[in-house]
Amino acid sequence: MIIAFKRLAATVALGLLAFPAAAQEMQIRLVTAFPENTAWSQELVKWSERVNAQGKGLVKINFIGGPRAVPTFEIGNAVKSGVVDMALSPGAFYTNVFPEADMLKMAQIPVSEQRKNGAVDYINAVWNEKGNMQYLARMVEGYPFHIFLSKKIDKLDLTGKKIRVSPAIRPAVQTLNGNVINIPPGEIYTALERSVIDGYGWSVGGIFDLNLASHTKFRVDPGFYDADVSLIMNLDKWRAMTPQQREFIQKMAMEVEANTAYWRKEGEDEKKKQNASGIQPLTFSATDTAKYLDAVYEAGWADLIKTSPVHGPKLRALLSRKP
User: For residue 278, is it left (φ>0), alpha (ψ between -120 and 50) or beta?
Assistant: First the structure.
């Protein structure tokens, strides 16, 4: 693992030789946890282009790429160590750095409220200390996870089903008695094609980007949790910037966060597109649905608090909807 990571660092460093550095500009190496053809990655590239246009002479973002440059589950270590400077990723993909990263998905209040009630400040205190990271902004909000299946179920029970998960939704699938399989996003299609899995957990959008629709027949509604796709930055790099550079990067990151409503609408549009493609929504009684949602949130928090007994309860209080 250490040798592989050193090779990764060398590869990224060599890739940067193509970018001429301007002494007055802070060079920022940016990666995404998602394949480059996904909507999130494409929006990230557009954002980096806006940063470079508006911040010329101040900062320059060098977009390195997606998982082909830095493997999905190495993205946290890459940011922590400074192999890259900035990344777009959900916390679930870097729980191998610190478990609290996965708590962002549990938020039931908007990020605008999190900035007012102290949640973002607390997040940054933890991210600084445990991940050597600065949490900049949340790109995606109101974008729940769903369980997508190749075969129909008649009740909210996944007994005997092999379901692809990320760490983000493992507790939810286990609560429904599913057999969990953790594989990277780019391998889901092949796993479905070969019947290695019976379904997968994924956010409401993105299955067409990954060409999964042809092997997907059903979507369990409603969704649960909330995809926490966010911008994070190496803390040493953040501190090395001038106050003017930090202010500019944070301002540009907040533009991303201000556009979260786009993803809420995009998620609804994705469901319509899925329905039109033949993916059938599976809904259950109001009683069963309420029990299901209560169970997956309780399972999620119980799992997270077990791994972080100090920060877990505090983040739950800050991120949860008040009764």
Answer: left
Which range in 14-18, 204-208, 286-290 is most confidently predicted, on average pLDDT?
A: 286-290
In the 8-state DSSP scheme, what is residue 20?
P
Measured in whole angstroms, the distance separating CA 182 from the mean position of its chain's CA atoms is: 15
What is the total residue count of the chain? 323
How far, in Å, CA of 193 to CA of 181, rounded?
A: 15
Instruction: Look up residue 269 and give its amino acid.
Output: D
Q: Which residue, among 168, 170, 162, 164, has the nearest Cα to 189 in the 3D structure?
A: 164
Query: Strand, helix or coil at 164?
Result: strand
The string of pLDDT tens digits covering residues 249-289 is 999 999 999 988 888 888 999 999 999 999 999 999 999 99
Question: What is the Rg, in whole angstroms, of the alpha carbon atoms belonging to the chain?
Answer: 20
Task: Convert the pLDDT of each residue in 207-258 to its tens digit.
Answer: 998 899 999 999 999 999 998 999 999 999 999 999 999 999 999 999 999 9
Query: If residue 28 lies in a helix (H) or strand (E), which one and from where to where?
Result: strand 26-32
277: left (phi over 0), alpha (psi -120 to 50) or beta: alpha
Instruction: Read off the pTM.
Output: 0.81
Contacts of residue 293, defined as CB under 8 A and 6 or more positions apart, other chains included, come to 222, 224
Classify residue 17 by burial, with Cβ atoms within 10 Å: 0-12, 13-18, 19+: exposed
Q: State the DSSP code for 224.
A: B
Sort strands 59-65 and 145-149 into parallel, antiparallel or unpaired: unpaired
Helix pair angle (286-307, 311-319), 10° resolution:
140
CB atoms within 10 A of CB 242: 11
Instruction: Characterise 160 by phi-psi region: left (phi > 0), alpha (psi -120 to 50), beta (else).
Output: left
Separation CA 232–CA 212 (nearest Å)? 28
